[in-house]
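Changelog entry: the LysR family transcriptional regulator record was regenerated in this release. Current contents:
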Amino acid sequence: MPVFSRFLRYFIAVAQQGSIRKASDELNIAASAIDRQILQGEKLLGTLLFERLPTGLRLTTAGELLLSSGLRWTRDLRALTTQIDNLKGLRQGSADILVPDALTKGFLPAVLGRLRETHPGIVVNVHVRASRDMGELLVDGQADFALMFNPGHMRELFVRAHKEIPLGFITPPDHPVGALETAPFSLAEEYPVVIPAPPLALWRPLELLEAETGIKMQVVARTDNIQMIKSLVSEGVGLGILSYLDAYDEVQKKQLAFTPILNKKLSPLTLALCVDRSRQLSMAARLIISEIDQFFAHQF
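Regenerated structure tokens:
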């Protein structure tokens, strides 16, 4: 049961999303119920918390003060919960994790599956977000830690561990490129390829590599969905270009093959395990991190 009132939870969601409709989608609560709570809260406080604009809702000065206090109370509650979890030991507890879409299959579900067997009392809340948004979410106290690609510099963040993830061609297992240990980028000119599109992180280094090498990729499809790239490759549309983690599960099951692209101008992606410097991690979060550390130590 939530400790804070429905009003405060709804208010924070609306303030962060900028509209009641978006908050409704996030909370899975009827928009009318959220609006009613906001109106009742404004009546109780005797002041408007939002300016109603044609483009959405904007916090008033009073609303900004309440949001700041509400977020601080939320962080304080999380810190208290962490301390209580530590008193319980590892029998119970919870952890919130931010992960990119690429980790929804493969090693992370396997790690969490093993955790369920050894520590059934621990609840793990996994939030799938874009890497570019994770830093602010961590600092706002929305999660215990994040696994993000190519983290930008934020003074409040600490990178506990990182791993370089190679980029390469994704092919059916019986494709001749799949039999190679490494492959030159020039193969993207010889074979039809399916490539990532924005906002996927990989589109930018591929665009730069194409410009710097003068190699014109034989693009037959672009998509901003990793699963669609793998599906198109499986259907024989073309070679895919992804990171190893994007196809980790299929490669382990021998449904697809991964061949690293060998080119000095193509930098690998960096997968980083990041935490808020000021946050005390619960025992549950530390346990999950220790399991992830084993994967980071693994050589591809």
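The chain has eleven helices and twelve strands.
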